[in-house]
Design a protein that fits this description.
Blueprint (H helix, E strand, L loop, with lengths): L25 H12 L8 E6 L5 H14 L3 E6 L4 H12 L10 E6 L6 E5 L5 E2 H14 L4 E6 L6 H15 L4 E7 L1 H8 L11 E5 L4 H13 L3 E2 L2 H11 L3 H14 L4 E2 L2 H25 L3 H10 L8 H8 L3 H13 L3 E3 L5 E3 L4 H7 L1 H8 L1
Helix pairs in contact: 3-4, 7-8, 8-9, 8-10, 9-10, 11-12, 12-13
GO molecular function: ATP binding
Keywords: ATP-binding, Nucleotide-binding
InterPro entries: P-loop_NTPase
Length: 375
Amino acid sequence: MVYANVEDNPFTPSFGEVPLVMAGRGQLLSEFDRAFSSQARRPSLTSLISGARGTGKTALLTLVEERAQERGWIAVDLVSLPGMLEDALEQTRSRAAHLLKGADDVRLTSLGVGPLSVGVSHSNQGRGNWRTQLTGLLDELAKHGVGLLITVDEITPGLDELIQLVSTYQLFVREGRKVALLMAGLPHSTSMLLRDQSVSFLRRAQQVRLGRIPDFEIEKALRDTFAHSCKSVSEEILAEAVQVIEGLPFMMQLVGFRMWEEGTGGGLIDDDTAREGIRLAKEEMKSRVLLASYQDLSPMDRRFLYAMTEDPVDSSVPDVARRMGKSNSYATQYKNRLLEQGVIGLCGNGRVRFELPVMREFLAETDEGQGWSQS
């Protein structure tokens, strides 16, 4: 991806858009590239991607799709909603139309409870269920040596159609077909899906957990992205920005975007102007990401987080438990819940830290946080 106009803002703090420079995912992308180029089946072809809001799950799916298509695969992108099975058929037929013979209209007509009880109607061929129709499409693709990649974003674990898609995919893998399935969701959603006994084989799929990106990679991505534009920032501001970003891809795009927008004209953005951009990005992070994450938490989840705010950097569970007025084992349950949701992370010796940038500041500004600090 290259920007034709250096006067365009090169940062992209929007949902699912692939950034100009994707920080910290080089090794992962190389694994996917090898999987889509290999004649033998590789583990990456069945992957479950999880991460908190802002870790770049959708952007990663989009980029992997693009790279799979560059290697000759047909890619269809689904959202975990009713109708996704019909959408999978229609997208496959549309995107592979140049390879298919008699690509007729196919329509989902019924959805049952069993793993394969999905009915479709079609205009010129005999009747068949969803698996039969997709099998026919895969047969046609196989004649050309072409594989089918299915991606599913924002998974809904309890959706019957998702379970049926995954169950049928397992059969395609057993049949030796050239198929791949990449799914992404919030950590608690992926955990729920993995606990579903009807798709237990997913526990053997590749689990990709998107977390913090190292500071040096964030700094390099910021520097490289600015290099594609007509503006730049000082080394001091670059260091301050990295400190605020705390390894979150969305925050990197947001901080870069706001600093660039605040600067007028080309050349070096003065430090005060850049700092105003950082301030605006922090406020936007609170309203666009942290508020939604906070609202998903239970009262006791929040109490655990407030207890962590008394430490300057990281916290021990015994200290948090004491501040909560609870036992270590009780506090550990909530530590595990928050780890699963991607709100906190481990940092060695059993200690935990906030995983999302500006979370400590956000908590201090809530009514509960102000009450906690006064108690």
